[in-house]
């Protein structure tokens, strides 16, 4: 199987992302992780950019033993000298020179003719070659360069001593078909092309950077340049984890592979995100939080029966523990039952169905239903109490300039409906006064506490109350996404328990069921 070399430029092109600035310590920490990941080449920075970057590249050069360390330079002697200084102490140093070759860049930016561009690049490569055995040359904006001139530039670079010629689609302009064809043309037309490695460097301006890199591989590229999480200038660079996993997953098609330690991908992604401050979108391929998460019932059912129904690669390959089945409003019974088993509940089919209906009601109110939500929902009815009273409707009126009032409608076991309205010192007090009026139970609220069951603004609130009546006390519990409803439910739950306790001499129940 053909090996594809991985050239990581997270610390150079990745650092060119607006807002990202890595200090020496951070660059070395990322470089160590890239070495663990097994990248062949690490472009550590642009030493001529600043004394700080020169020092950072030098620190990386001295720290890294198993990957080649590279510094970027314009085709100017002072930049090359800066890379020479920065790579002192490197085990396997390499310089990366560039000079734009496209008509737009030649005319407007460099103000050079084709001949001047060729001459400047040639003399820079020859100068660098005196100090480095490994020289990579990039005709910047190769993607928009006349193809015959690109062949000429590549041949010049090979003759001058370049060991790698990189073909950057600097502005992410090309389609995979066009980019692949450039490699095919260079392979077929440039003298000495077999002596060097051809490299692909793509940008994601049109969202085609990974597809372009793969097209280059299909047409003979030996090396792929890119960054972790696809960070980089503007829309970013090719995501190396995407290329690596595409080759791994579709070896049958590409007949090529990297030598990366794939199980380090997730860890590397997290570190780069943490130190650059660039958050990985949830739906990002391979490393996004949802890349191995399944929310809909039909998919979850398939996953439970056979993971390959909905996963083309396993999360373990990139160093994650497992796929996630996220419970939400699209989930079905199979996944819900599995979650109950995971959480340690053994329920009958009828109980699962009742719980599932409640879960769907909750899922309509919440984006994601957490384990804590499910526990709270199941355990809300842990003890099988006869529901003498059941809350039907609750309406609360509150304004900071007004006395709060509440209206409740309660169903009784006998089938009647009790409706009452009351005011109170606060909304909860008004609710409890209305319940007292409706049920005609005289109780004392001896404790009230509330806590959040899960996280986020839509978290469920769990209310605990203790009610006392003629020396008997009972507790009640209510859970809802609305804390006033949770308060009402907890109070009525405690009332039902009190009534049941009154009926028995011991006051103890021995019948337990989950819902
Ligand atoms: C596609 C890429 O990602 S290329 C890499 C981009 N990365 C960076 O630019 C980050 C680091 N850059 C820097 O810190 C600064 O731009 C420096 C230190 C390199 C240069 O700064 P300055 O000397 O102030 O020049 P400035 O950046 O304003 O302009 C760039 C100059 O380099 C020239 N230039 C651009 N590319 C090259 C090149 N590959 N080889 C030679 N000269 C070049 C430009 O034509 C311009 O020259 P001019 O001053 O004669 O007009
Ligand atoms: C320096 C070069 C290779 C570059 O980053 C680009 O052209 O995108
Ligand atoms: Mg680039």
From TrEMBL:
Name the species this protein comes from.
Answer: Paenibacillus selenitireducens
Q: Which gene encodes it?
A: leuA
What HAMAP family would the database entry show? LeuA_type1 (MF_01025)
Q: List, in alphabetical order, the GO biological process terms annotated in this UniProt record.
A: L-leucine biosynthetic process
User: How the protein assembles, per its UniProt entry?
Assistant: Homodimer.
Query: Gene3D superfamilies attached here?
Result: 1.10.238.260, 3.30.160.270, Aldolase class I (3.20.20.70)
Transmembrane stretches, start-end: none
Q: Any idea what this protein is called?
A: 2-isopropylmalate synthase
> Which GO cellular component terms, listed alphabetically, does the Swiss-Prot or TrEMBL entry include?
cytoplasm
- Give the required cofactors: Mn(2+)
């Amino acid at each position: 199987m053909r090996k594809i070399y991985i050239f990581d430029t997270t610390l150079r092109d990745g650092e060119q992302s607006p807002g990202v600035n890595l200090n020496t310590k951070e660059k070395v920490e990322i470089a160590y992780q890239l070495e663990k990941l097994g990248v062949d080449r690490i472009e550590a920075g642009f030493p001529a950019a600043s004394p700080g970057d020169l020092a950072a590249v030098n620190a990386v050069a001295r720290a890294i033993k198993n990957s080649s360390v590279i510094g970027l330079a314009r085709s100017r002697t002072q930049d090359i000298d800066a890379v020479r200084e920065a790579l002192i102490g490197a085990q396997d140093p390499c310089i990366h020179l560039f000079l734009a070759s496209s008509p737009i860049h030649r005319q407007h930016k460099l103000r050079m003719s084709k001949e001047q561009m060729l001459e400047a690049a040639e003399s820079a490569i020859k100068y660098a070659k005196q100090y480095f055995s490994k020289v990579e040359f990039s005709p910047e904006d190769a993607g928009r360069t006349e193809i015959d001139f690109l062949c000429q530039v590549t041949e010049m670079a090979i003759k001058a001593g370049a060991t790698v010629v990189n073909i950057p689609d600097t502005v992410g302009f090309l389609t995979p078909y066009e980019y692949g064809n450039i490699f095919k043309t260079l392979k077929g037309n440039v003298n000495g092309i077999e002596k060097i490695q051809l490299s692909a460097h793509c940008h994601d301006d049109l969202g085609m950077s990974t597809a372009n890199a793969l097209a280059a591989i299909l047409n003979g590229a030996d090396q792929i340049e890119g960054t972790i999480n696809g960070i980089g200038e503007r829309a970013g660079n090719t995501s190396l984890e995407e290329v690596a996993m595409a080759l791994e997953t579709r070896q049958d098609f590409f007949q090529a592979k990297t030598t990366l330690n794939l199980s380090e991908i997730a860890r590397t992604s997290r570190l780069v995100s943490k130190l650059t401050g660039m958050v990985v979108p949830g739906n990002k391929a391979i490393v996004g939080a949802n890349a191995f998460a399944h929310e809909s019932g039909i998919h979850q059912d398939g996953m439970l029966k056979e993971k390959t129904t909905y996963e083309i690669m396993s999360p373990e390959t990139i160093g994650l523990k497992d796929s996630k089945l996220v419970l939400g409003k699209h989930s079905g019974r199979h996944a819900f039952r599995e979650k109950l088993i995971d959480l340690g509940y053994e329920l009958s089919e009828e109980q699962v169905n009742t719980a599932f209906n409640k879960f769907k009601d909750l899922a309509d109110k919440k984006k994601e239903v957490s384990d804590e939500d499910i526990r709270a929902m199941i355990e809300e009815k842990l003890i099988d109490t006869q529901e003498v009273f059941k809350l039907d409707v609750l309406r609360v009126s509150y304004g900071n300039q007004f006395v709060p009032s509440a209206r409740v409608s309660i169903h009784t076991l006998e089938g009647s409906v009790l409706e009452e309205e009351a005011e109170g010192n606060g909304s909860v007090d008004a609710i409890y006064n209305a319940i007292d009026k409706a049920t005609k139970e005289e109780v004392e609220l001896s404790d009230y506490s509330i806590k959040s069951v899960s996280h986020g603004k839509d978290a469920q609130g769990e209310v605990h109350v203790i009610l006392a009546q003629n020396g008997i006390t009972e507790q009640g519990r209510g859970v809802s996404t609305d804390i006033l409803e949770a308060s009402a439910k907890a109070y009525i739950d405690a009332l039902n328990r009190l009534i049941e306790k009154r009926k028995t001499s011991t006051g103890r129940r021995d019948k337990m069921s989950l819902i």
